Amino acid sequence: MSHHTQQSEDDMKLRKVPKPEWPSDDDKTRVEVWLNDRFLVQVFERRDVTRLSVNRVTTNGAGRWEDNITWDDLQIVKRQCGFGDMLAVEVYPEDRDVVNDANMRHLWVLDYPICGVGWTKSRLIDGIRVD
Question: Looking at the DSSP assignment, which residues form a beta bridge with residue 128?
């Protein structure tokens, strides 16, 4: 089991990967790829929905990407990919729809808050007080 120390956000700075260096699977919904020495982040857009797929760049003894991506890691990744001012959710599907082929985490970025989902500090959104 690998243990990763908590790094500062500066130590985790992602860089945008040029398109010629992207994975070669020709996925037309992929719009950006970001990378640092810990994470590969792929940004997909499909029908006005943005999804961040995040995995580590290191593998374990079984040849799978290492896991243990923390909440703090995901928050930093979301911010550095340009979505820091937006709400994102991670989905836990019905048992029949589970796909667990790789140690990846997926965040769906929301264009607007969904009633009752998430936490906010008291502020105004479109003129409505949100607590």
Answer: 125
Domain hosting residue 51, numbered range: 10-130
Instruction: Tell me the residue ranges of DSSP E strands in 1-131.
Output: 15-16, 30-35, 39-46, 49-56, 88-89, 105-109, 123-125, 128-130
Q: What's the CA gap between 78 and 20, in Å, rounded?
A: 23
Q: What's the Rg (C-alpha) of the chain?
A: 16
CA of residue 95 relative to chain centroid, distance: 22
- Kindly state whether residue 2 falls inside one of the protein's structural domains: no
| 67-105 pLDDT, tens digit each | 889 999 999 999 999 999 999 999 998 999 998 888 899
What is the reported pTM? 0.80
